[in-house]
Design goal:
heterodimer; A: 253 residues; alpha/beta; Rossmann fold; 6-stranded mixed β-sheet; 4-stranded antiparallel β-sheet; 10 strands; 33% helix; B: 368 residues; alpha+beta; 2 domains; 6-stranded mixed β-barrel; elongated; binds adenosine-5'-triphosphate; binds magnesium ion
Chain lengths: 253, 368
């Protein structure tokens, strides 16, 4: 996988609320190459989510161009955008957004239900593989309420992987998790990025989390304040290994 | 409900045909008499003269019988029972398709002599002669002793729910002279030689009776000639009205049920806004969401339909068992009710489903 996954040029997004106009993005340009692991940082209200929604084709820019994997998104209809999301993008949300009372496997299969080219056998096969990739092969039949927060987020990541997207978009995917579980998620992200070459765009508040990525874009009031390459990202795996072991109680306690 | 309507229609038709579909009834009719309309039954226009004229001139009819009836108490020793005694000609049994289970019928001779003999119906037997053979026994009716010479085969209820077995049948002369003391008849029964000529027979009888009553051409009939066919039509239309009425009630229930479905679907759409947002973000198009919610609405309404049909069959059974009303569950009404259920689901589920399909994915995902 090589080439330019996304390219945005002078992107602006304004929200009109009655007479007031909120300018959430005020002209943003950057490109992301295949295989990059980009984190987007910035204070609250700086426009991170707004940007990610546009990158994920859930929203359209007011002004500016957006090319996703060579496709000009501006020209597409609502249904075509849905198809594009289905084929090229995997979303991971802060709140997991798994279907309740539905097994992990069925949750992972969900995106493929909206792809008519995929038979039910292939769908199952791919979902099983995706769950293996997030190390939940033994949790097929568990429903979200039977899984921990970290496990639920891993199911959500498997769901984002199952359609073999060109890019994974995550909005504060570790925001609801403790630091240990966050590192586990980041270790998984790094693994997907390094071994499978997945392109990842990851929105976060925490500089700690950003240090695992190969590039960090700082937003401030709707413009790019800083765009820095990280030549030697930390390894989340190593950080995890150096963490004190979980407190285990002696038996009989 | 449709089953009850159709059932009653069918039963009316059956029971009337059972009475003899080529039977013709003549009854005295109200006539404008100095501007005062008098009710038919109290009007006395039919006499033996009419019978004679009909017997002499009518060609399309085979059997003819006058009829008079008296209400009274039938007494056997300590037992007594209020019933009706019909005074008729022996031909009446053929016209009404009555038959005897036991004993013999009375004859022309009995009519001539006003014999005090009678035939007895099952209901009267049950009340006056429990577990006995009544043939040959004597009962009193209107203080006059009658000898029972025959037992009628049971006929059950007629279309109006009257018990046709609660009856005594005697020669009409006996009832006229010994009980009612009248020279008039209450009805004349006749049967057309076959079903095709009933209309011709009606016209013929009307002409003969007009002549016999010496009515001028500008005068209205003072009697009424009716065929079973007319009766069937009148009653069927009443029962069609019943079917329509029940269908309207069913329709109203359907609308109420439909609004219920709409409500459930609205709640479902609102509760699952985040799910809709998620599905859209992973590639569901508007029409995928629309189809999903429509399918759910149809599922709900078809489930309701299955329960409804089962309850319907059950209540039809109960109605037939307890009230004795006949019901017909036709395949078409079951199939129709499923189609109607599915359509109700689609119709009332469409608006909520459309609302779901038009949600903005970003806002839906953010919905709390
Ligand atoms: N639908 C909307 N209508 C109006 N204003 C909006 C809308 N969405 C976002 N905004 C505004 O755009 C600006 C950027 O919002 P955004 O959600 O992108 O911030 P963020 O960087 O994701 O913040 P946080 O870190 O708190 O999630 C904010 O001022 C917000 O009020
Ligand atoms: Mg945000």
């Amino acid at each position: 996988m090589s080439g330019r996954i996304l390219e945005i040029k002078d992107l602006k997004r304004e929200f009109t609320m009655g007479v007031e106009t909120v300018r959430a993005l005020k002209g943003i340009s950057f490109t992301v190459e295949a295989g990059e692991f980009v984190t987007i940082m910035g204070s609250s209200g700086s426009g991170k989510t707004t940007l990610l929604n546009i990158l994920g084709c859930l929203d359209k820019p007011s002004i500016g161009d957006y090319l996703l994997d060579g496709v000009d998104v501006k020209k597409l209809s609502r249904d075509e955008l849905a198809q594009l999301r289905n084929h090229k993008i995997g979303f991971v949300f802060q709140a997991y957004n798994l279907l309740p009372r539905t097994t992990a496997l069925e949750n992972v299969e969900l995106p493929l239900l909206y792809n008519k080219d995929i038979s039910s056998e292939l769908r199952r096969e791919r979902a099983i593989k995706a769950l293996e990739a997030v190390k939940l092969a033994d949790r097929h039949d568990h429903t979200p309420s039977q899984l921990s927060g970290g496990q639920q987020q891993r199911v959500a990541i498997a769901r984002a992987l199952v359609n073999e997207p060109v890019m994974i978009l995550a909005d504060e995917a570790t925001g609801n998790l403790d630091s240990r579980t966050s590192y586990e998620i980041m270790a998984l992200m790094q693994e997907l990025n390094q071994t499978q070459g997945k392109t990842i765009v990851f929105v976060t508040h925490e500089p700690d989390i950003a240090s695992f990525s190969s590039r960090t874009i700082m937003l401030r009031d709707g413009i790019i304040q800083k765009d820095t390459k990280n030549e030697s990202p930390r390894s989340a795996r190593e950080v995890l290994d150096n963490l004190p072991k979980r407190i285990t109680f002696p038996t009989g306690f | 409900m449709v089953a009850i309507g159709q059932g009653s229609k069918q039963s009316i038709h059956d029971s009337l045909s059972n009475m003899g579909s080529n039977m013709i009834t003549v009854s005295p009719a109200s006539n404008l008499n100095g501007g005062v309309k008098i009710s038919g039954s109290s009007f006395q226009t039919l006499t033996s003269k009419d019978i004679v004229a009909l017997k002499r001139e009518a060609q399309y009819i085979t059997d003819i019988s006058p009829s008079v009836s008296a209400k009274g108490q039938a007494i056997n020793g300590a037992q007594n029972w209020p019933t009706t005694m019909s005074g008729v000609d022996p031909a009446y049994l053929d016209i009404r398709k009555l038959s005897l289970k036991d004993g013999i019928a009375f004859t022309e001779q009995d009519v001539l002599t006003s014999a005090k003999v009678c035939l007895i119906g099952q209901t009267v037997i049950d009340n006056l002669f429990p577990n006995q053979n009544p043939v040959g026994k004597v009962i009193r009716f209107g203080n006059i002793p009658f000898q029972i010479i025959g037992v009628l085969n049971p006929k059950g209820q007629n279309a109006f729910g009257q018990d046709q077995d609660d009856i005594l049948i005697a020669p009409y002369t006996t009832v006229q002279k010994r009980i009612l003391a009248t020279i008039y008849y209450q009805n004349i029964y006749a049967s057309a030689s076959n079903e095709q000529v009933t209309d011709a027979a009606v016209t013929e009888m009307t002409n003969i009776l007009r002549e016999s009553h010496r009515l001028r051409s500008d005068e209205d009939n003072d009697f009424q000639v009716r065929t079973q066919e007319e009766l069937i039509n009148t009653l069927s239309s009443t029962s069609s009205l019943l079917t329509v009425l029940l269908t309207v009630i069913a329709g109203i229930s359907l609308v109420i049920g439909g609004i219920g479905i709409m409500n459930i679907m609205y709640v479902s759409v609102t509760e699952r806004t985040r799910e809709i947002g998620l599905r859209m973000s992973i590639g569901a198009r508007g029409k995928d969401i629309l189809m999903q919610f429509l399918a759910e609405a149809v599922l709900i309404s078809i489930t309701g339909g299955i329960i409804g049909v089962l309850l319907g069959i059950l209540s039809c059974r109960i109605v037939t068992l307890t009230l004795g009303w006949p019901t017909i569950i036709s395949e078409s009404s079951v199939v129709l009710s499923f189609i109607v259920c599915a359509l109700t689901g689609i119709f009332f589920g469409y608006y909520p489903a459309q609302k779901a399909s038009r949600l903005d994915p970003i806002e839906a995902l953010r919905y709390e």
